[in-house]
Amino acid sequence: MARFGRTLTAVRRILNATAATNRRSVPPLLPSPIRTGSVFQREHSFWFSSYSTLGNGDSGTIPVDLSSEESKRRLFNRLLYRSKQRGYLELDLVLGRWVEEHIHSMDENGIKALVDVLDLENPDLWKWLTGQEQPPDVVGQNPVFCEVRNKILNNLNSHAAPETRAIPGQPWVRGWDDIKKNPGAPIAGNQ
After folding, report:
1. What is the CATH number of the domain that holds 96?
2. What angle do CA 181, 183, 187 make, to 5 degrees?
3. Mutual orientation of helices 69-84 and 89-102 as an angle, nearest 10°?
4. Which parts of the chain span the membrane according to its record (predicted)?
5. Statement to judge: residues 74 and 156 lie in one domain
6. Residue 60 is assigned to a structural domain of this protein
Protein backbone atom coordinates (compact mmCIF):
# COMPACT_ATOMS: atom_id res chain seq x y z
CA MET A 1 0.00 0.00 0.00
CA ALA A 2 2.87 2.35 0.79
CA ARG A 3 4.39 1.72 -2.65
CA PHE A 4 1.07 2.63 -4.31
CA GLY A 5 0.93 5.89 -2.33
CA ARG A 6 4.49 6.79 -3.35
CA THR A 7 3.65 6.06 -6.98
CA LEU A 8 0.62 8.35 -6.86
CA THR A 9 2.70 11.09 -5.26
CA ALA A 10 5.36 10.73 -7.96
CA VAL A 11 2.76 10.89 -10.72
CA ARG A 12 1.20 13.99 -9.16
CA ARG A 13 4.64 15.65 -9.00
CA ILE A 14 5.34 14.86 -12.65
CA LEU A 15 1.97 16.19 -13.77
CA ASN A 16 2.40 19.38 -11.74
CA ALA A 17 5.90 19.91 -13.16
CA THR A 18 4.62 19.40 -16.70
CA ALA A 19 1.77 21.84 -16.12
CA ALA A 20 4.14 24.45 -14.71
CA THR A 21 6.54 24.25 -17.66
CA ASN A 22 3.77 24.38 -20.24
CA ARG A 23 2.01 27.26 -18.46
CA ARG A 24 -1.30 25.55 -18.84
CA SER A 25 -3.29 23.20 -16.68
CA VAL A 26 -3.11 19.44 -16.93
CA PRO A 27 -5.96 18.05 -19.05
CA PRO A 28 -8.60 16.15 -17.13
CA LEU A 29 -8.50 12.37 -17.12
CA LEU A 30 -11.41 12.29 -19.58
CA PRO A 31 -10.91 15.14 -22.06
CA SER A 32 -13.86 17.25 -23.07
CA PRO A 33 -14.20 15.79 -26.62
CA ILE A 34 -15.33 12.52 -25.08
CA ARG A 35 -18.06 14.24 -23.13
CA THR A 36 -19.21 16.39 -26.05
CA GLY A 37 -18.91 13.70 -28.71
CA SER A 38 -16.87 15.77 -31.17
CA VAL A 39 -13.72 14.80 -33.03
CA PHE A 40 -10.67 14.38 -30.81
CA GLN A 41 -8.31 17.28 -31.12
CA ARG A 42 -4.59 16.94 -31.74
CA GLU A 43 -3.65 18.01 -28.19
CA HIS A 44 -5.48 14.96 -26.82
CA SER A 45 -3.69 12.48 -29.08
CA PHE A 46 -1.56 11.28 -26.18
CA TRP A 47 -4.72 9.79 -24.66
CA PHE A 48 -6.18 8.23 -27.80
CA SER A 49 -5.25 7.29 -31.33
CA SER A 50 -5.18 10.26 -33.66
CA TYR A 51 -7.68 8.40 -35.89
CA SER A 52 -10.35 8.00 -33.21
CA THR A 53 -13.61 9.87 -33.55
CA LEU A 54 -16.85 9.87 -31.64
CA GLY A 55 -20.26 10.95 -32.82
CA ASN A 56 -19.27 13.06 -35.79
CA GLY A 57 -21.49 11.19 -38.22
CA ASP A 58 -18.87 9.44 -40.35
CA SER A 59 -18.86 6.27 -38.21
CA GLY A 60 -15.08 6.20 -37.99
CA THR A 61 -14.35 5.57 -41.66
CA ILE A 62 -10.98 6.47 -43.09
CA PRO A 63 -11.00 9.46 -45.47
CA VAL A 64 -9.81 8.52 -48.96
CA ASP A 65 -7.20 11.00 -50.21
CA LEU A 66 -5.27 9.98 -53.33
CA SER A 67 -4.05 13.49 -54.21
CA SER A 68 -0.35 12.96 -53.49
CA GLU A 69 2.02 10.02 -53.33
CA GLU A 70 2.57 10.53 -49.60
CA SER A 71 -1.15 10.53 -48.76
CA LYS A 72 -1.65 7.50 -51.01
CA ARG A 73 1.20 5.64 -49.28
CA ARG A 74 -0.22 6.46 -45.85
CA LEU A 75 -3.70 5.36 -46.86
CA PHE A 76 -2.44 2.08 -48.33
CA ASN A 77 -0.36 1.35 -45.22
CA ARG A 78 -3.29 2.13 -42.94
CA LEU A 79 -5.68 -0.10 -44.89
CA LEU A 80 -3.13 -2.90 -45.11
CA TYR A 81 -2.60 -2.72 -41.35
CA ARG A 82 -6.36 -2.75 -40.69
CA SER A 83 -6.78 -5.79 -42.91
CA LYS A 84 -3.96 -7.77 -41.30
CA GLN A 85 -4.52 -6.85 -37.64
CA ARG A 86 -8.21 -7.51 -37.08
CA GLY A 87 -7.72 -9.94 -34.20
CA TYR A 88 -9.39 -12.87 -35.96
CA LEU A 89 -6.54 -15.05 -37.26
CA GLU A 90 -8.26 -16.64 -40.24
CA LEU A 91 -9.70 -13.32 -41.34
CA ASP A 92 -6.33 -11.60 -40.84
CA LEU A 93 -4.66 -14.12 -43.13
CA VAL A 94 -7.27 -14.17 -45.88
CA LEU A 95 -8.22 -10.50 -45.95
CA GLY A 96 -4.68 -9.23 -45.35
CA ARG A 97 -3.28 -11.31 -48.18
CA TRP A 98 -6.03 -10.19 -50.58
CA VAL A 99 -5.55 -6.51 -49.72
CA GLU A 100 -1.77 -6.83 -50.06
CA GLU A 101 -2.17 -8.27 -53.57
CA HIS A 102 -4.86 -5.86 -54.83
CA ILE A 103 -4.61 -2.50 -53.05
CA HIS A 104 -2.11 -0.91 -55.46
CA SER A 105 -4.35 -1.56 -58.46
CA MET A 106 -7.54 -0.16 -56.88
CA ASP A 107 -9.15 3.13 -57.83
CA GLU A 108 -10.91 5.48 -55.42
CA ASN A 109 -14.24 3.61 -55.60
CA GLY A 110 -12.49 0.31 -54.93
CA ILE A 111 -10.73 1.77 -51.91
CA LYS A 112 -14.03 3.11 -50.57
CA ALA A 113 -15.54 -0.36 -51.02
CA LEU A 114 -12.55 -1.84 -49.16
CA VAL A 115 -13.04 0.63 -46.29
CA ASP A 116 -16.70 -0.44 -46.10
CA VAL A 117 -15.62 -4.09 -45.84
CA LEU A 118 -13.01 -3.28 -43.19
CA ASP A 119 -15.68 -1.50 -41.13
CA LEU A 120 -17.70 -4.72 -40.79
CA GLU A 121 -17.61 -6.79 -37.60
CA ASN A 122 -15.21 -9.76 -37.66
CA PRO A 123 -17.58 -12.64 -36.79
CA ASP A 124 -20.23 -11.47 -39.24
CA LEU A 125 -17.70 -10.84 -42.00
CA TRP A 126 -16.14 -14.29 -41.53
CA LYS A 127 -19.52 -16.05 -41.65
CA TRP A 128 -20.52 -14.12 -44.77
CA LEU A 129 -17.21 -14.70 -46.54
CA THR A 130 -17.19 -18.44 -45.84
CA GLY A 131 -20.84 -18.98 -46.77
CA GLN A 132 -22.05 -19.89 -43.28
CA GLU A 133 -24.65 -17.12 -43.50
CA GLN A 134 -26.06 -15.02 -46.30
CA PRO A 135 -24.73 -11.44 -46.27
CA PRO A 136 -27.13 -8.49 -46.32
CA ASP A 137 -27.83 -7.11 -49.79
CA VAL A 138 -25.68 -4.02 -49.23
CA VAL A 139 -22.67 -6.14 -48.28
CA GLY A 140 -23.33 -8.74 -50.98
CA GLN A 141 -23.21 -6.03 -53.67
CA ASN A 142 -19.86 -4.65 -52.50
CA PRO A 143 -17.29 -5.47 -55.23
CA VAL A 144 -14.42 -6.03 -52.77
CA PHE A 145 -16.53 -8.34 -50.63
CA CYS A 146 -17.57 -10.33 -53.72
CA GLU A 147 -13.97 -10.76 -54.89
CA VAL A 148 -12.72 -11.86 -51.47
CA ARG A 149 -15.66 -14.26 -51.04
CA ASN A 150 -15.07 -15.76 -54.51
CA LYS A 151 -11.40 -16.29 -53.68
CA ILE A 152 -12.27 -18.03 -50.39
CA LEU A 153 -14.95 -20.23 -51.94
CA ASN A 154 -12.65 -21.18 -54.85
CA ASN A 155 -9.93 -22.14 -52.36
CA LEU A 156 -12.42 -24.20 -50.37
CA ASN A 157 -13.62 -25.98 -53.51
CA SER A 158 -10.11 -26.76 -54.73
CA HIS A 159 -8.48 -27.71 -51.40
CA ALA A 160 -11.20 -29.30 -49.26
CA ALA A 161 -13.41 -32.25 -50.03
CA PRO A 162 -17.13 -31.45 -49.90
CA GLU A 163 -17.67 -34.22 -47.31
CA THR A 164 -15.47 -32.41 -44.80
CA ARG A 165 -17.30 -29.09 -45.04
CA ALA A 166 -20.51 -27.82 -43.53
CA ILE A 167 -23.56 -27.48 -45.73
CA PRO A 168 -23.70 -23.96 -47.21
CA GLY A 169 -25.75 -21.72 -44.96
CA GLN A 170 -25.05 -23.84 -41.88
CA PRO A 171 -22.56 -22.92 -39.13
CA TRP A 172 -19.30 -24.79 -39.01
CA VAL A 173 -18.89 -27.43 -36.33
CA ARG A 174 -15.87 -27.88 -34.12
CA GLY A 175 -14.24 -31.10 -35.25
CA TRP A 176 -12.10 -32.03 -32.28
CA ASP A 177 -14.83 -32.96 -29.81
CA ASP A 178 -18.09 -33.20 -31.76
CA ILE A 179 -18.02 -36.98 -31.81
CA LYS A 180 -18.10 -37.04 -28.00
CA LYS A 181 -21.04 -34.68 -27.70
CA ASN A 182 -23.27 -35.85 -30.53
CA PRO A 183 -24.22 -39.52 -30.66
CA GLY A 184 -25.17 -39.30 -34.34
CA ALA A 185 -21.94 -37.55 -35.42
CA PRO A 186 -19.98 -39.01 -38.35
CA ILE A 187 -17.15 -41.40 -37.63
CA ALA A 188 -14.62 -39.56 -39.81
CA GLY A 189 -14.26 -35.92 -40.69
CA ASN A 190 -15.20 -32.91 -38.65
CA GLN A 191 -18.75 -32.49 -39.90
Report:
1. 1.10.150.250
2. 95
3. 150
4. none
5. yes
6. no
